[in-house]
Amino acid sequence: MPDLVVHDPHRNWLLLIEAVATSGPVDGKCRKELKTLFKGCKAGLVFVTAFLNREAMRSFLSQISWASEVWVADDPDHMIHFDGERFLGPYPDVAAKS
């Protein structure tokens, strides 16, 4: 299970949030496992990795899955998007990056 699950009923999205300090980033393996875990879910899945600060994020940049988001506690009003055609939203499977 992710560290935090947030439902956006307006858009019918589930934000699956992993705190890197507890379980690591949303990498290809984690993304695949979460998609399997939430396989029957009708809501769109949005994958988010949460960091305390940018310094903590730096060592994990190469592991973060494409088509996912990053949130940094030091800058709570902003998110970083990793590829994809749009910012923040569910995506179909992408090539897993492990």
Give keywords:
98 residues, alpha/beta, Trna Endonuclease, Chain: A, domain 1, 5-stranded mixed β-sheet, 3 helices, 19% helix, globular, disordered C terminus
Word description of this protein:
This protein has 98 residues and is of the alpha/beta class. It has 3 helices and 5 strands. It has helices at 20-23, 28-37, 54-58; strands at 4-8, 13-19, 44-51, 68-72, 79-82. It has a 5-stranded mixed β-sheet. The relative contact order is 0.21. Mean pLDDT is 88; it is low at 94-98.
Short description:
By secondary structure, this protein is of the alpha/beta class. Helix content is 19%, strand content 30%.
Write the layout of secondary structure elements.
Blueprint: E1 4-8, E2 13-19, H1 20-23, H2 28-37, E3 44-51, H3 54-58, E4 68-72, E5 79-82
Parallel strand pairs: 2-3, 3-4
Antiparallel strand pairs: 1-2, 4-5
Fraction of residues in helix: 10-25%
CATH classification, class level: Alpha Beta
Tally the beta strands: 5
* Count of individual domains: 1
Instruction: Determine the CATH superfamily.
Output: BsuBI/PstI restriction endonuclease, C-terminal domain
Q: Summarize model confidence as the mean pLDDT.
A: 88
How big a fraction of the residues is strand? Answer: 25-35%
How would the global form be characterised? globular
Q: Low-confidence parts lasting 5 or more residues at pLDDT below 50? A: 94-98
The number of helical elements comes to: 3
Q: Helix- and strand-based class? A: alpha/beta
Strand order of the largest sheet: 1-2-3-4-5
Distance between the termini: 19 Å
CATH architecture: 3-Layer(aba) Sandwich
CATH fold-level assignment? Trna Endonuclease, Chain: A, domain 1
